[in-house]
């Protein structure tokens, strides 16, 4: 009951306020203008950039995270390397927000340690072309930092679920490694891999604090657009547009997580 009360106050109640406010104007009258504005101008562009950023970091994180997960899954299950990687992934997957932004600023910022070393000793200026760290390329690099360890945490149980008996049965029937991955390992791992990919997409799409700490000028993605409305930087008569943006994010994340649930149900049937 305490948990349900906590979730109701800090999750359900705000969601209901966003849902109601998205369909109201400043006078509380029902309107669809807030939602139609999502498909226009800077707001639509922000959704496109957010989806592109989330999809790109999800793919990068899923590929490199899966390779790292495979490297530790085929090793000693009780080995030191596995324990270090799993423990480190648990920490780094939650290392976001302002601390992560500061870490990158101190490392590859305008006066970061690596930036100054390359400029003074190698003659390479990381910011010769543009201030990429504070734009979408920089967000892609920073988001990937916590996407890869999250993939390790999510995908490792699927790899551990591959039973040695399946490979032995394939070999006893004259199958090759290609046969095993084509007809056994691949079909079993595909749903959890896609599910993890969707989870990474939702994780990046909803991230706010890291982007807010890095990007101080402009609002290239949806969470930063919503920040503008919450801090009072609104156009008169469009106060509820921020709630419409929030509703749009809820819909996108709900679709991604809904597909993830369907994929997980398929995995459960395979590994019973």
UniProtKB/TrEMBL annotation:
Subcellular localization: Cell membrane
PANTHER family: INNER MEMBRANE ABC TRANSPORTER PERMEASE PROTEIN YDCU-RELATED, INNER MEMBRANE ABC TRANSPORTER PERMEASE PROTEIN YDCU-RELATED-RELATED
Residues annotated as domain ABC transmembrane type-1: 47-262
PROSITE patterns named among the record's database cross-references: ABC_TM1
Superkingdom classification of source: Bacteria
Record keyword NADP present: no
Topology class, membrane: Multi-pass membrane protein
Keywords (A to Z) from UniProt: Cell membrane, Membrane, Transmembrane, Transmembrane helix, Transport
Protein's name according to its UniProt entry: ABC transporter permease
Alphabetical list of InterPro entries matching this protein: MetI-like (IPR000515), MetI-like_sf (IPR035906)
Transmembrane regions: 46-72, 84-110, 140-159, 244-263
Primary localisation category: membrane
Source organism: Lentzea indica
Family, similarity comment: Belongs to the binding-protein-dependent transport system permease family. CysTW subfamily.
Keyword Transmembrane applies: yes
